[in-house]
Amino acid sequence: MMMNKLTWGLLLLLCTGCAVLGAQKYDSLFGPEQVQNRSNDVSPAQSDFFTEQVKPVIDNRCVVCHGCYDAPCQLKMSSPEGIERGTSKDLVYDGTRLLASKPSRLFVDAHTTQQWRERGFSPVLNEREQSAHANLVGSVMYQALALKQQHPLPEQAILGEEFDFALDRDQTCPTIGEFQQYAQDKPHAGMPYGLPALTSKEMSVLTQWLQDGAKMPKHGPISAELQTEVNKWERFLNQDDNKHRLSARYIYEHWYLANIYFDQISTSEFFTLVRSRTPPGEAIDVIATRRPYEDPKVARVYYRLLPRKSTVLAKTNIPLALNNDKLARLRTQFIAPEYAVPSLPGYDIKVASNPFKVFAAIPVGSRYQFMLDEAELIIRGFIQGPVCRGQIALNVINDQFWVAFVDPKFVSQPKIDEFLMRHEDMLDMPAQEDSNALPISSWVKYAAKQSTYLEAKSKLANEVFANGQHLTENLIWQGEGHNDNAALTIFRHFNSATVVKGWVGEQPKTAWILDYSLFERIHYLLVAGFDVYGNVGHQLITRLYMDFLRMEGEDNFLALLPKEQRKALRAHWYRKSPTSLVEFMKDTNVRFEQPTGIDYKTSQPQQELYQRLATKLSAVLSQRYDYQKVPNVLRQLNAMPSTAVNLLPQVSYILVANGEDDYQAYTLLHHNAHYNISSLLDEEDQRAYDEDKALVIPGFIGDYPEALWLLQPQQLEDFAAHMQKMTSEADYRTLKSRFAVRRTDPQFWRFSDILHQQVKKYRGIEYGLLDYNRLENR
């Protein structure tokens, strides 16, 4: 029975009073800690209560901050297993550690609560005597919620310095025995942190649940219809012949981050492709390795589809639809071609980390077309994969650029296969150094390999196009006339990023054209080969090597421009670059030197090239985020002066009311301009603030909103006019006082629910809960 406000209030006073008990008294009062199995003996009523009342509160009030690798104290509340696991004082994101840390991936690196305790995780639920009183007194989760009820947010728009919202802030992560001192030192630190308290009804729901032992039902079996699909796909992925086994390994290493669903049956149930010790028909036994290609230490790997157990988060939702057409496509790409796989490659790191060695038997055309079919998904892997945040990881890309791809007909040739096999050692990547690397010596080694490869590649290209046959826009893959993966836009938001289909926004400063070898290397550098738990050397060498890959993609684009324009444009992109990089760019041995085959008609060839390529891709250019569809009154923000743009956060959401329950949604992006993006640790000195721009787009871009604006239609002109006139922080704060929903707004959670309703409407299968860890305090 739900407790009334008076009963709940008395319990709150009783339990928070008891919270002053020191850790030494908990054992004497309630016995020693002992891991509980809360999914045992869950009654139908308890199961329904959790699913229908408790879970929605946890998802919409807790998971929005406690969902990803960088959740405070590693407390991931998006699943019962994450809640049971609890907290850790260890950091996942640590750019200074000298030695790689031990991975702590939920569902991967440990599988029981006891195993997590042995790895140092502390409970947030009571693990002593299971009584109503002890379940509240001994619960960190309850005490943190109660602390906010006792000390609600100050009645002020902008919170004081006692609130620290920095992503790299010190993590306190108190255990129940430490909570008394924590509450005394930080009375403002109740949960939700830096946001309004739960309502009385929400608090009563969670209090009742915690008091009754925090029962959480087990995940039920999937439907028979879904199981039939799973069985069909697992049969395909686990056939015994070498061709199927090598193909399955390739597919897995590119799809392991995907949220897989069967679109003809369900769009709400997701699966993950995993490596298992057990074959289809048996319970899945996940093989835990740092990287998807590392030695599984079993005689035979089986590729299995594991049901997802967590609430879907926007920042990690990379959906992939499987159906009969996709299965037929894979058979056409990997099984139908005539090639032999006399023996399967092993897992020695020097081989396994290099896809050009491991998968040499599979035709390049098959591999490349497979990646192109789901190009957005592959690129989202290194934009939305394990790196929930990382300024150092992302300062290697510009804030907005377009991506296109070389047509497979240019790489599906025997001489390309031969060329890649001949230079496979030059395509080794830093992950070969494992997760503990020495950055300087590693960088020198791989820089030399990259230079050698580029020299050979340029020599081949210069020879091929030396006899009157020149590159034109026909180089570009057109998505076979229907695949909108052919044109993508990547946005950087300082320490997060987004990739979407289509060429979004005004013509960008730079663009990439990816060929097969480049696309593959980016994936194995930033996704398959990247270890978020790696040491500082591993992280730095990964970032440094990406400089070369980015420039290679840019050079592919430059090759379509007039030869005399390339050097000047590259010099503009890399103003104030480090001397070493300037010297590298001067090396004509690594440059394509043949003239373009395009007959330019204007004095602005880069802009003309963008237009020609857009025309070439017109049949498959997604218009989902067409900024021209934004109302004129908001579109004028795209031209606001840089002094105003400089004041904006990276990602702002604007909701314009269309009635009581209907809204139009827009994203306002702040593009940070740089003289160059080749400075590893000194990005601030490379910022070209006078060149910053804004872009308003229909719908939602990004998963970490920093500012939230709620407008009535009649307010649009006033809002836009004042935003363009901003010149100071005071101007920005005044504007927020009039139109924004600040994190301190008493109606914040009501707006949050409206926001998520709109995100779900706009994103469909890509929907997931947003992350509020970057909400500004301004």
Please summarize the sheet with the most strands.
Answer: 4 strands, mixed
Question: Order of strands side by side in the largest beta sheet?
Answer: 7-6-5-8
Poorly predicted runs of 5 or more residues:
1-6, 12-20
* Average pLDDT over all residues: 90
Counting helices, strands and paired strands, the structural category is: alpha/beta
| Strand percent estimate | 5-15%
Tell me the number of strands.
Answer: 12
Domain module tally: 3
Describe the structure.
The chain is of the alpha/beta class. The protein has 29 helices and twelve strands. The protein has three domains: 5-211, no CATH class; 397-505 and 530-622, no CATH class; 627-766, Nonspecific Lipid-transfer Protein, Chain A. Strands 7-6-5-8 form a four-stranded mixed beta sheet. It has a four-stranded mixed beta sheet with strand order 11-10-9-12, with helices on one face. The relative contact order is 0.10. Residues 1-6 and 12-20 have low confidence and may be disordered.
